[in-house]
Amino acid sequence: MATQFSQPARANAPHPPAPGSPETADPSIGDLLSEISTDLSQLVRDEIELAKAEIKQESTKAGKAVGMLGGAGYAGHLVLLLGSFTIIFALANVMDIAWAALIVTAVWAVVAAVLYSSGRKRLRTVNLKPEQTVETLKEDAKWARHPTS
């Protein structure tokens, strides 16, 4: 009985290709195109992930710089407000309160200048172009043109 069941199993099993038969030749064009398509899809997914990471990093830097510029705007607003109070108090009380308000206004002016210059300097370092992604895309294009090199 054991030989009866093992015989059909051997008959249906694939035979190894004979040397020189078409089955031992290079993969078909369809197989190669399928492999290239799969590799290209993975490559595009990887490039998109790289671009997302780079853009997120640069956006964080831009957000911090914009926050500093916002702080400079707020400090500038206080300069105008306190400067206005200074003029009012200067006209109302010739010396005492006016000089105090002027000193506070000058301090806020310095704070505004420092925040503005720091924010501006940081904003200049922001680069929203994903440099690594562009570079790897150039390399990928070069490889696609000359896959063996």
Summed up, what is this model?
The protein is mainly alpha-helical and 149 residues long. The protein is built from four helices and no strands. It is rod-shaped.
Q: Secondary-structure element order, as H and E?
A: HHHH
Tell me the radius of gyration. 36 Å
Strand content: under 5%
Task: Please state the structural category.
Answer: mainly alpha
Query: How many strands?
Result: 0
**Average pLDDT value?**
77
Number of helices: 4
The major beta sheet can be summarized as: none
Helix content: over 70%
Q: Which residue ranges are poorly predicted, with pLDDT under 50 across at least 5 consecutive positions?
A: 1-11
End-to-end separation? 59 Å
Q: Specify the overall morphology.
A: rod-shaped
Task: Give a written overview of the molecule.
With 149 residues, the chain is an all-alpha fold. It is rod-shaped, with a radius of gyration of 36 Å. The protein has helices spanning 2-12, 29-92, 96-124, 131-145. The relative contact order is 0.10. It has four helices and no strands. Helix 2 (29-92) runs antiparallel to helix 3 (96-124) and helix 2 packs antiparallel against helix 4.
Q: Which descriptors apply to this entry?
A:
single chain; 149 residues; mainly alpha; 0% strand; disordered N terminus
